[in-house]
Amino acid sequence: MKVSEYVKAKSLNEAYDLLRENKKNYIIAGGAWMKLSVKTADKLVSLDGLGLDQIVLKDGFIEIGALSTLGQIETNETIKKLLDGILVQATGNIMGVNIRNIATIGGSVMGKFSFSDIYPVLEVLDTKLVFHKHGEVELLDFLNNTKFEKDILVKIKIRNQKGKGFFKKVATTPLDFSIINVACSYVENRLKITVGSTPYIAKPCIKAMEYINGVKEITSEVIDKCSSIVLEEVKFSKNIRGSKEYREEIAKVYVTRGIKQVINYEG
Amino acid sequence: MKVKITVNNQEKIFECTPSDYLLDTLRDNNYVSVRRGCDTTNCGVCTVLMNGKPVPSCSVLTVQADGKNITTVEGIQEEAEKLGKYFGAEGADQCGYCNPSLALTVYAMKKELVNPTVKEVKKYLVGNLCRCTGYISQERAIMKYLGDKS
């Protein structure tokens, strides 16, 4: 990315105004992948110094400032305990520690990366995004709308729940993007399942969740049927990392394992 | 534009453009132990410590480092020499191109992790690629270095 001017905003209002004044003005998060962008920025607006790099527990929610690095998340003691540490598992296996010390949760969310390991986990947690102008927004609303792209993500709120969690990233090497990733959670007798990097961005498996949360008893047959529903409702395709068929096979295996793990299935 | 960066405990003023990356600024100012590798945020050979944390200097804008502390391998000379002796003894030194970045990352890891296991060490160093050693000799050298409490 070519940058004409770098501006360190003194307030969120100033940053917001700069972002809206010109289509070629951008907010910089960690900047981890900026080098690979072919865009030209008239103004690159930094939020450094606005206190957006804090992780706090408040009113039953873990509030993660948008500029918190993946490294901060990975080492946070509260997040380590959240649903078997699924968010730590997801962030802690993205590239190397040096990248994770600059890549931010805000950049990861706003990028809507299809290969994201963070989205599947955020979707099985109770996650809300807090924007400067739009205020609190459900994660799925953000995913399904483009109107938030010219707003500033301030923080991510995750309900500090007790329950079980599962996350699996399948990749050729630790430095590669996922071929597939699967997340499951089990909180207050409700199962959530998401499959991502299909190679499309992760989406909750609504039909599969409705099915499995509607049965009286979760048996081996129910889990098998649930995994089959996941394959029917999730759109799989091929890219350089894997074929459609491979992704389907792997997704079925890890959805099955994920469900069994979070419900402590011993059948 | 001018930025003020503390490099190896010395305050420096660097002239740069908003598009300049820290790797280029450091190398242009004779910090040539900071190596250029893939230049695409992958290999880790350009790693420096920013406020004590390993970061890829190829992907940090120089302006992002304004007001921060940067450490290159010259800033941890004593520890780097100590690690280097273990590298030599274990045959972990070959072309040596990745050694400065690896030394910095190991140094940061030693401060961050208490008595790390081999698995934890491997996970921490996954972003530092070496195309010579195959990592086994490095692993031996690093574990012995970490065990050396002298």
Description:
The complex is a heterodimer of chains A (267) and B (150). Chain A folds into 3 domains: 2-46, Uridine Diphospho-n-acetylenolpyruvylglucosamine Reductase, domain 2 (2-Layer Sandwich); 55-159, Uridine Diphospho-n-acetylenolpyruvylglucosamine Reductase, domain 3; 164-262, Enolase-like, domain 1, CATH 3.30.390.50. Chain A is α+β, with helices and mostly antiparallel strands. Chain A contains 11 helices and 12 strands. Chain B is 35% helix and 15% strand. Chain B is built from 5 helices and 5 strands. A 5-stranded mixed beta sheet of chain B has the order 2-1-5-3-4, covered by helices on one side. In chain B, a hairpin with a 2-residue loop joins β3 (47-50) and β4 (53-56). In chain B, α2 crosses α3 and α2 (77-89) packs across α5 (136-147). Classes of the chains: A alpha+beta (267), B alpha+beta (150). The A-B interface holds A 1-6, 28, 31-36, 44, 46, 48, 71, 92, 95-99, 101-102, 174-175 and B 1, 17-19, 21, 39-42, 44, 47, 50, 53-56, 58-61, 63-64, 105, 108-109, 123-129.
Q: Between the first and last Cα atoms of chain A, what is the distance in angstroms?
A: 54 Å
- CATH homologous superfamily label of the largest domain in chain B: Beta-grasp domain
> Based on DSSP secondary structure assignment, what is the total number of beta strands of chain A?
12
Number of domain modules of chain B: 2
**Helix share bin of chain B:** 25-40%
**Poorly predicted residue ranges of chain B:** none
Shape of chain A: globular
N-to-C series of helices and strands of chain B: EEHEEEHHHH
The largest sheet of chain B, given as strand count, sense and whether it forms a barrel, is: 5 strands, mixed
Overall mean confidence score, pLDDT of chain A: 96
Which strands sit side by side, in order, in the main sheet of chain B? Answer: 2-1-5-3-4
Instruction: Give the CATH topology of the largest domain in chain B.
Output: Ubiquitin-like (UB roll)
